[in-house]
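Table 4 source record.
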Amino acid sequence: EVQLVESGGGLVQAGGSLRLSCAASGFTFDDYAIGWFRQAPGKEREGVSCISSSDGSTNYADSVKGRFTISRDNAKNTVYLQMNSLKPEDTALYYCAARLLSQTDYNYWGQGTQVTVSS
């Protein structure tokens, strides 16, 4: 059974930090890129960051560049999202998702972890 399980969300004050984890199982982790997405109430889901497996290349949304860092540990089948200098506008439900390296559509999605940043 394919599973993506997010953890690490919570309530934090503006300027604080959180580290999200995405633990994967049930598929060949090394063959997949992993992305983080978020959705705030009343807003569309947006891509936050993604990381390849083949070369470790990363991408970030402009809104989080310089503040968030994505990384992966293939030995643990886990991807992390280190979030620093958090802002109230970062408040959202954060999801991780997996897609084959050769494709653009994400195949698997987690259930999400809530991040709330207070001002």
